[in-house]
Backbone:
């Protein structure tokens, strides 16, 4: 059983935890459930100074003999990998005994689960300041949140939700599958009454608050920490800036006391006894004075600032020179003490010692604990900022690492610059350096990732010449597979398959599983993937091998590629499953570039399924959030252009042309297919027949040359709409083959079966049977494809169909109007099955008022009855 942590409080202490009774009761209730075997997780959220740590400490005073594991995250350049759990292991021998000297994520997770399952009683796991957590820590927190409901355990996480944006990984802690989402406790500011009570407490002991309660409440905004500091401060400058009250308090100390505070301000986690002796051995009086100031908090094992606001106030109050000098002294004191290298690195940077920081970063990069790509990127930036003193080969190696990690973290242009620099350095050395071939392969990969395929091919040619004499070299197989990929891009599928056959044979012979998975995946694409004999075999084998691999980028790439192949063959459901698996795998292993591409693929799939709003939101988020996603952005841009085109968004025309230009510059068939088909759709809606015919013929040839059967079939379908004679071809997907053969009803039925409503609608409107054609219009209206539906209505009328239903009424700018707030309320009650009279009673309005609202809703939703209105609202995402 892990060691217990007891925090004893008196009844008087509990009274001073003002306005936190409800939150404390929530924690007690969750712990009571955990004690009975129904564990759970709680996230305590609030800004700095709202009392998250204080609340948790009070709660720990009520857990009796429960085991408690406590750890925290620190504000460092790169978060300590798995830092809070390593803290727990250091403090608890029972947990440490389960771990190797340098545990990885899986080993640490296994040890934690073993400790929780074998504790013999309730266990409380506390992780503080999760907003500073590394990705591996977030992954473990998410895993624990899913597992603790079946254990006698309570997971408590504190988090500054005000310091994280929508893309911060800590948001993953707040979400999860149903039944595993943590209970959220939001700490609110203190009321004026509570601040007045605290001020009265100060007067009761014969002291006078620094400010009146109403002024304190106004300045501090009810923040408990700032309230306590302002009440205790007599500095008149506190009114101007609350932080200055903390700094003014520190200025009241002697020179020695202030020096102690400054030294501690550069240490985010404070000092343990050993470090304190190194720092303050001859300043014991100053240490005691600083501790008595009320700005510090001490335990038998550590002294630190009572709150981050106090530390930052002192730190920011130092001059530039004082900060450098203080950090320098701290680094000297920590040297050789076994201190956390990340802390030393931060201190070296604060001291302005670039050489020392670079050396520390290089040491960290060589360790096993820096596997997370975002952390490696930050460390590489520090290492390469001051590389003097390193041999050229090592500098080149750092640049090559930065090129790889830059791609993984969606910084493709920066990655290219690092790859070019690595090749440049190695090329300037005497003779041919053994690492030059590897650097060239990295450079080729970087060029391909931004769509510069011709230059990538030239670079691979140089690498091929260097590797010709190394027959049993895995790098040569990697290079050969990349050349096969380049052949695929160029449309030379026979050459690609020939090279891939060679890569597969050599990888199998030598047991190079990652290269085997990569080559099998590409050959599956070259052969056509599912529903083709060789392609299906390669696909199944690549997935089976890839799922046994650990940290193989090739597997994540294959999952996305196979999702794409299934979608090409009219199988969106397995395509969606594979895209989701690719997203999870890339996320778990820190491959942000592959996660971006997988999420784009997912958006493309759900767009085909008619989930337009969700697809648009995902694509917008991805394009706004990635620093530099490289060529992967083209498919995302094309998806957004398709949505805008169908809706009639005025931004569509410019986006369509820009994405087509980008696809032409890149040249790979997936980019050209995505951008080309949306451009054809835009031309069709604009009504320019001859430009569209020429363009569609170009796409047909592109699809034929690359054996991209979906592109070829879709382009032929465009020509068919223009009245050209077309027919199915060998290998034509079944649904498109039915349409090209003129059986639009069969094609529509197949699109319906596969769950692709937009394509179904375009086949339904071909019918001369009015109800069938009008159902196609309804599908387009429901998806928000306003421009496409308008074009279809005009076309149906020109064909002589009468009674073509009008679409949803639109505003002047073409947008479908939204409901008023009252209409939205009524619609929600309709969806609940309430009658008009019941709705009137619920909303305290007259029955005829509800009748009027219901009539307006039916009119706006273009619905015949209440059931249709609810279905339409759900389709538009209004419910």
Residues:
């Amino acid at each position: 059983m892990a060691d217990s942590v007891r925090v004893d409080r008196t009844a008087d202490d509990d009274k001073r935890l003002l306005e936190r009774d409800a939150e404390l009761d929530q924690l007690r209730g969750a712990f009571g459930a955990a004690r009975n075997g129904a564990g759970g997780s709680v996230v305590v959220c609030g800004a700095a100074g709202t009392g998250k740590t204080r609340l948790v400490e009070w709660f720990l005073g009520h857990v009796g003999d429960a085991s408690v594991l406590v750890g925290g995250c620190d504000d460092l350049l790169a978060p300590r990998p798995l830092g809070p759990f390593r803290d727990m292991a250091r403090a608890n021998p029972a947990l440490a005994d389960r771990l190797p000297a340098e545990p990885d994520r899986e080993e640490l997770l296994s040890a934690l689960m073993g400790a929780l399952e074998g504790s013999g009683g309730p266990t409380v796991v506390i992780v503080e300041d999760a907003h500073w957590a590394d990705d591996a820590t977030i992954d473990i927190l998410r895993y624990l949140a899913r597992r603790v409901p079946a254990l006698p355990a309570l997971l408590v996480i504190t988090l500054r939700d005000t310091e994280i944006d929508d893309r911060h990984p800590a948001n993953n802690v707040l979400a999860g599958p149903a039944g595993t989402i943590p209970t959220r406790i939001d700490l609110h500011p203190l009321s004026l009454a509570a601040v007045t009570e605290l001020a009265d407490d100060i007067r009761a002991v014969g002291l006078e608050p620094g400010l009146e309660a109403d002024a304190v409440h106004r300045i501090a905004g009810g923040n408990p920490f700032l309230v306590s500091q302002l009440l205790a401060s007599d500095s008149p400058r506190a009114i101007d800036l609350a932080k200055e009250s903390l700094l003014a308090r520190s200025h009241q100390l002697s020179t020695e006391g202030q020096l102690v505070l400054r030294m501690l301000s550069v240490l985010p986690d404070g000092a343990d006894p050993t470090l304190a002796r190194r720092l303050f051995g001859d300043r014991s009086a100053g240490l005691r004075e600083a501790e008595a100031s009320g700005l510090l908090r001490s335990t038998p094992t550590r002294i630190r600032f009572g709150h981050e606001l106090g530390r930052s106030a002192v730190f920011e109050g130092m001059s530039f020179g004082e900060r450098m000098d203080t950090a320098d002294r701290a680094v000297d004191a920590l040297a050789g003490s076994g201190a956390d290298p990340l802390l030393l690195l931060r201190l070296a940077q604060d001291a302005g010692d670039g050489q020392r920081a670079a050396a520390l970063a290089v040491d960290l990069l060589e360790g096993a604990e820096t596997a997370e790509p975002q952390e490696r990127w930050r460390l590489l930036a520090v290492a390469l900022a001051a590389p003097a003193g390193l041999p050229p080969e090592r500098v080149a190696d750092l640049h090559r690492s930065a090129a790889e990690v830059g791609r993984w973290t969606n910084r493709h242009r920066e990655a290219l610059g690092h790859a070019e620099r690595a090749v440049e350095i190695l090329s300037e050395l005497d003779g041919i350096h053994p690492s030059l071939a590897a650097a060239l392969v990295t450079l080729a990969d970087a060029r391909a990732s931004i769509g510069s395929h011709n230059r990538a091919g030239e670079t691979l040619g140089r690498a091929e010449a260097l590797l010709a004499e190394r027959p049993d070299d895995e790098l040569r197989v990697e290079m050969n597979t990349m050349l096969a990929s380049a052949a695929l891009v160029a449309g030379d599928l026979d050459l690609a398959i020939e090279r891939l056959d060679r890569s597969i044979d050599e990888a199998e012979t030598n047991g190079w599983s990652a290269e085997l998975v990569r080559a099998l995946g590409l050959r599956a694409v070259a052969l056509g993937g599912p529903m083709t004999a060789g392609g299906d075999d390669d696909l199944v084998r690549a997935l089976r091998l890839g799922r046994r691999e650990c940290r193989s980028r090739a597997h994540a790439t294959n999952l996305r590629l196979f999702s794409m192949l299934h979608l090409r063959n009219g199988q969106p459901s397995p395509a969606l499953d594979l895209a989701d698996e690719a997203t999870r795998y890339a996320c778990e292993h820190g491959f942000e570039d592959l996660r971006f591409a997988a999420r784009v693929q997912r958006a493309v799939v759900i767009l085909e399924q008619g989930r337009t709003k969700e697809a648009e939101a995902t694509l917008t988020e991805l394009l706004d959030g990635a620093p530099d996603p490289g060529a992967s952005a083209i498919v995302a841009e094309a998806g957004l252009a398709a949505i805008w085109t169908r809706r009639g968004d005025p931004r569509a025309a410019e986006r369509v042309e820009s994405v087509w230009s980008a696809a032409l510059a890149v040249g790979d068939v997936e980019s050209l297919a995505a951008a080309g088909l949306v451009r054809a759709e835009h031309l069709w809606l604009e009504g320019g027949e001859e430009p569209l015919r020429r363009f569609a013929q170009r796409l047909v040839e592109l699809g034929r040359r690359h054996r991209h059967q979906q592109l070829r079939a879709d382009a032929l379908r465009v020509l068919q709409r223009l009245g050209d004679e077309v027919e199915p071809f060998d290998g034509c997907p079944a649904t498109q083959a039915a349409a090209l053969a003129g059986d639009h009803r069969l094609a529509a039925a197949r699109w319906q079966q596969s769950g692709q409503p937009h394509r179904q609608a375009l086949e339904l409107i071909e019918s001369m049977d009015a109800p069938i054609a009008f159902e196609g219009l309804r599908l387009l209206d429901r998806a928000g494809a306003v421009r496409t539906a308008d074009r279809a209505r005009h076309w149906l009328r020109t064909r002589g169909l009468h009674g073509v239903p009008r679409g949803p009424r639109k505003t002047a700018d073409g947008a479908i109007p939204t409901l008023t707030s009252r209409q939205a309320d009524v619609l929600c009650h309709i969806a609940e099955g309430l009658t008009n009279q019941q709705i009137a009673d619920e909303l305290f309005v007259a029955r005829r008022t509800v009748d009027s609202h219901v009539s307006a809703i039916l009119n706006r939703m273009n619905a015949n009855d209440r059931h249709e209105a609810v279905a339409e609202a759900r389709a538009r995402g209004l419910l």
